[in-house]
Amino acid sequence: MKQQDLKNTMPARLAPYRSCLRHFLSYIDDVEYSDDHIFSQERLREVTPNDVIRWFNYRLYGTDDPVPGEEDTCPKVRSSALEGWKKMLSYFMPNNHHQWNEIDNKGNPTKAKCISNLIQSIKKKEARHRGVKSTARRPLKESEYRSVLGIARNHANHVVRYGIPALLSIQTSLIGRVDDVTQWKKMHFKSHSTFPLFAAQARLNWSKNVNEERDAPWQILLGSMDADFCILLNVGLWLEVHLQQRAGASLSPYVLSFSNNHSIPAGGQRAKETAMNTMREIFNDDGFQGLHAEDNGDAGPLGTHSVRKFASTWARRNGASRDEKDYIQGAMEKGEGL
Fold first, then answer.
1. Is 112 helix (H, G, I), strand (E, B) or coil?
2. Could you give the strand order of the β-sheet that contains 189-191, starting from the edge strand earlier in sequence?
3. Where are the beta strands (DSSP E) in the chain?
4. 146 and 72 together in one domain
């Protein structure tokens, strides 16, 4: 496929990939390439591991040739940023499936050992708190989870009042990402065929690593004696209220139809945006009883992913073994049934 054709067929989500490649080669070539510049396969084959190391060092220290032995030099970016850039650059390398052969100088330059060693050295500095503080979302605590529900249930807007508890119950039951559950369709939610009186079934075929239809079989949903965690109670209440109060809600294919957009996948993406914005508002609400740094060590920021991390921890603390927790979480990531 020609480079121009490749550019035209790229999904919009790959725009950051193109931007990363442009910034990388603009630095290496000392040329300010335009946003729409197309790099030839010949130019991409000339990229070497040393080029990647130079650019990484520039982003880390402001110079592509840092003084050796300065162990206390604090990097300006996280190792996770380097890993992300490595992945983005690797996408464009002509031999991106091959390891780098140091003898023949062939293969994917981003897979060279020297690059892995550099990233590992930055991780070691991060472990010693030398560098940029992590912005990773920390898990919610049980008290914080219940505080979010308390604020949501007192909200005037029924989408927040009933939709957010439904969202949180789905995430905790299935240890799911907000991306997955906001794409959950009504056609993939029904009573269990064998135990219809106390169980339901669901399919989440938009999970991150679902690539084939068989990767997203039906999963069992069970209720809970605790109303804050009961997926059947919270989702059922949300649907009953929402279908009555919002005109046209029955036309939406989504369980969590937080907007009037009924198209696929845009409707689910809008629901995700609504959920993230709403959760951000709740975390900043004066009534939110969040833990402070002195109560929780290095208390980090909270986000929708904090719910998934909380669900993982909650499963372990309620008797699930690490293998069982990993299986449930892996099932969501791969779309496997339970």
1. coil
2. 189-191, 199-202, 219-222
3. 189-191, 199-202, 219-222
4. no
Indicate if 246 and 326 belong to the same structural domain. yes
Confidence of residue 315 (pLDDT cuts 50, 70, 90): confident
Residue type, 237: L
Domain assignment present for residue 253? The answer is yes
Q: Are 239 and 249 in contact (CB under 8 A)?
A: no
Please tell me the distance from the alpha carbon of residue 299 to that of residue 320, in angstroms, as a whole number.
25
Domain with 224 in it: 142-334
CA 313 to CA 141: how far, in whole Å?
9
Q: What angle do CA 290, 295, 300 make, to 5 degrees?
A: 60
What pTM did the predictor assign? 0.74
Residue type, 214: R
Single out the residue in 127, 151, 174 at which a domain terminates: 127
Q: What is the mean pLDDT of residues 27-54?
A: 96
Q: What is the mean pLDDT of residues 275-290?
A: 93
The DSSP bridge partners found for residue 236 are: none
pLDDT reported for residue 4: 44
